[in-house]
Design a protein that fits this description.
31% helix, 8 helices, alpha+beta, 2 domains, 12 strands, Alpha-Beta Plaits, three-stranded antiparallel β-sheet, nine-stranded mixed β-sheet
C-alpha cells in the first residue's frame, strides 16, 4: 500500500471513531475485569460502537527504587534473578489479599481491587509488600540495600480495550486494558515518590560568631526557623541573640535531604481504611501520618508510613 493510501485509511478510521454517531457504552462494575471480558471491546468501525467499564475502587503500584542505577551496575544474571524475584513476590502479595495484577512494565506492578473491602485489601497488600521487600528480598538480595516504593489511590477508573487484533506469537504485544482516570495517575506518581530520597535547597541563614579570646570567627548555616528560635524576645529594632558570641549573619541556602515513606496514599484511601477498620493497630497507634508532598494534579492530603507485619521479622 502506498504511504498516501495508508495515511488516508488512518484518517478515515479516526474520523469514524471521533464522529458524533460513534457510540461508547459504559457499564458500571464492582469487580476488576479481565482482558477477555465481553463487555469491553475494541473500536468497531462497522457498527460504530465500543464498550467500556467503569470501576470505583483502589489501585496500587509498586516498583524498585533506583532501578536504572541498579541495572547499570549489576551483571545481567544478577539482574534477571532480582527482577524475577521482585515481580513474582509482588504478584503473590497482591493475590494474597484478592488483588488483580493488571499491568507489569519493567519493575512496576499495577494491582487493582474489587470494590468490596478495597481499602482494607489495598492497605494490607501494601503492608505485606513492604514487609517482603524489607525482610525477605533485602535479605536475599544482599549486594545492595533493596528498597521499593508503593502508592495507592481510590476513585473511578474507565477501563477500555486498546490496541489491535493480531494473530500469532506477537498478538499479546498489540493489546492491553487501559485504565483511565486520576486514581491510576495519582497512585503511579505516589509510587515515584515513595521511599525516594530527595535532595533540595532551602532558605537559610549563615551566622557568624566571633570569639574575642582566640580572635577567631566561626560560621554555620541554619534554617530560618532555627535562627529565629535562637533570638531573644525584644521590643526594640535591635536583634538580641541567645549566644553571646553572635556577631553577624546573611541570607543563604543550604542542602536538605528527605527520604519519603515506602507506602504513600491519598486521603480518600486513609479515610476509607479508617472507617472500615477503626481499631486497626496502624490507626490506633498513629503509624500513618500526613506527609508534606507535592503531587502533580493532586491537591489533597497525602498519608504515609513504614508499616510491616511483625510476623515477617521471625523469618
Amino acid at each position: 500500500m502506498a504511504l498516501k493510501d495508508f495515511l488516508k485509511d488512518l484518517d478515515d478510521s479516526v474520523k469514524v471513531v471521533t464522529s458524533s454517531d460513534f457510540e461508547v457504552e459504559i457499564i458500571e462494575t464492582e469487580f476488576v475485569p479481565s482482558f477477555s471480558d465481553a463487555s469491553i471491546t475494541y473500536d468497531n468501525l462497522d457498527t460504530k460502537k465500543k464498550k467500556c467499564k467503569l470501576l470505583e475502587s483502589c489501585v496500587l503500584y509498586v516498583d524498585i527504587r533506583s532501578s536504572a542505577k541498579i541495572s547499570a551496575e549489576r551483571q545481567p544474571k544478577t539482574l534477571a534473578k532480582m527482577y524475577s524475584s521482585f515481580v513474582r513476590t509482588m504478584i503473590a502479595c497482591a493475590r494474597y489479599y484478592g488483588g488483580h495484577v493488571r499491568n507489569i512494565v519493567g519493575d512496576r506492578v499495577m494491582v487493582v481491587f474489587d470494590k468490596a473491602k478495597c481499602f482494607e485489601n489495598a492497605i494490607d497488600t501494601a503492608i505485606l509488600m513492604n514487609s517482603v521487600c524489607k525482610h525477605i528480598l533485602n535479605k536475599r538480595i544482599s549486594s545492595f540495600e533493596f528498597r521499593a516504593g508503593i502508592g495507592i489511590d481510590y476513585g473511578k477508573m474507565l477501563i477500555t480495550k486498546s490496541g489491535a487484533i493480531r494473530q500469532g506469537d506477537e498478538k499479546e504485544f498489540y493489546r492491553s486494558l487501559v485504565w483511565l482516570g486520576k486514581p491510576a495517575n495519582t497512585a503511579s506518581r505516589l509510587t515515584d515518590l515513595a521511599h525516594k530520597t530527595e535532595i533540595y535547597t532551602i532558605p537559610a541563614i549563615h551566622q557568624g560568631n566571633y570569639y574575642p579570646y582566640i580572635k577567631d570567627w566561626h560560621w554555620q548555616s541554619k534554617p530560618y526557623e532555627q535562627f529565629v528560635d535562637d533570638l531573644e524576645p525584644t521590643s526594640s529594632r535591635m536583634l538580641k541573640h541567645k549566644d553571646e558570641h553572635f556577631n553577624t549573619f546573611f541570607k543563604t541556602t543550604m542542602s536538605h535531604s528527605e527520604t519519603h515513606s515506602p507506602i504513600l496514599f491519598t486521603k480518600s484511601v486513609f479515610d476509607g481504611f479508617k472507617k472500615a477498620r477503626p481499631n486497626a493497630d496502624s490507626i490506633k497507634n498513629g503509624w500513618w501520618s500526613k506527609r508534606n508532598l507535592d503531587v502533580r494534579d493532586y491537591d489533597g492530603d497525602i498519608y504515609g508510613g513504614d508499616v510491616i507485619f511483625s510476623v515477617v521479622e521471625d523469618l
